[in-house]
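Standup notes, protein team

Yesterday: finished cleaning the Serpentinicella alkaliphila set.
Today: Pyrimidine/purine nucleoside phosphorylase structure.
Blockers: none.

Input for Pyrimidine/purine nucleoside phosphorylase:
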Amino acid sequence: MEKFNDVTVVKKANIYFDGKVTSRTILFENGDKITLGIMMPGNYEFGTEEKEIMEILAGNLDVKLPNNDGWISILAGDSFEVPSNSKFQLVVKEITDYCCSYIKK
């Protein structure tokens, strides 16, 4: 999906890791939520409450998912899924544009 119609954008940014990761929250009429953001190169660990689907729009990173010993290379156009109530690690190799969808149980 190239654009989202009939949504509410939360004005305040989500800022993590001293500004190296930022996003904006988008709310849909049906209650769905996504964030659109940018990650600067670096190493990060995130925690989830809900299941997440991370779609990489531009950039290059490696992800280490829960219960997985290896790293997975992710490029623009790829996506990966993170279970709820878990942690995952990222090594962002270049500026990365992403869309994170939160999946309700």
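Follow-up from PR in the comments: The chain has a mean pLDDT of 96.
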